[in-house]
Amino acid sequence: MRSLMYLMTTYQDYFRKTNQNIYKKAKVTFPKPELYVVFTGEKQGHPEYMRLSEELFDGEECFLDVCVRVLYGSGEDDIISQYVTAVFHILLNCFKHA
After folding, report:
1. Which end of the chain is more exposed for a tag (fewer CB within 10 A), N or C?
2. pLDDT at 48 over 80
């Protein structure tokens, strides 16, 4: 749900910066969306993609569905694993000083 909200906020800013009016008859143009989530747990048993309809509506068809690609670190020195490690240390320090 957060990914959808971030996407809509990003598009709102994009339309404002490109001076496009979404309420006129003229077709608006915008970049194709790509949504990602970084998963910090073990990859085994977890999906490559998550869908809003599956997570919140038990897989029922709905008029709006969002597909998010799940990124996992390899546990080695890849960029995702480095990101997860950095966030972990930042949060750990925040809790120490809170």
Report:
1. C
2. yes
